[in-house]
Amino acid sequence: MVRLGSPRTAGEGPRLGTVRRPPRGVKKEDFATRNYFDVWLPDLAPSAPVVSAALSKPWTSSRWENFSKRYRREMAKPPADRLLSLLALLSKETNFSIGCYCEDESRCHRSLLRELLIEKGAVVN
After folding, report:
1. For 13-41, what is each residue's pLDDT tens digit?
2. Distance from C-alpha of 31 to C-alpha of 11, rounded to nearest angstrom
3. Which strands form 2-3's sheet, in the order they lie side by side?
4. Stated pTM of the model
5. How far apart are CA 39 and CA 59, in angstroms?
């Protein structure tokens, strides 16, 4: 799991951008060279209503729990669930990194993605 735009590390593999929107002011052909992502997977990003509810007030434990539950419900729907199953399977054969713009992974959907992938049997470093 990585913060999009941060320097790449050895062996992290392709970066998968699990964000609703690509980076502002960056040309599409520069996403990878500027360390954002190699492939954009907005299907694994939280929906606009879930993000809006999360950003509406200061973070609290109960608000994080609410966000987590809502995001997990979204990821249980067939398109996202199938994509998570595919990534879990691929993780056994190759390295890749999942990223978002959030600075604090512990309060970011990518921490939940880590849990969901592990639940599906993924190899996670």
Report:
1. 999 999 999 999 999 999 999 999 999 99
2. 19
3. 2-3, 97-100, 15-17, 39-40
4. 0.91
5. 30
**Separation of alpha carbons 31 and 4, rounded Å:** 10
String of b and e for 106-120 (b: at least 16 CB within 10 Å)? eebbbbbbbebbeee
- In the chain, which ranges are E strands? 2-3, 15-17, 39-40, 97-100
pLDDT in tens, 49-60: 998 877 777 778
* Phi, then psi, of 72 in degrees rounded to 5: -60, -40
Q: Which of 18, 34, 23 is nearest to 75 (CA)?
A: 18
Q: Any idea where the domains of the chain sit in the sequence?
A: 2-119
* Rounded distance between C-alpha atoms, residue 99 and residue 13, angstroms: 12
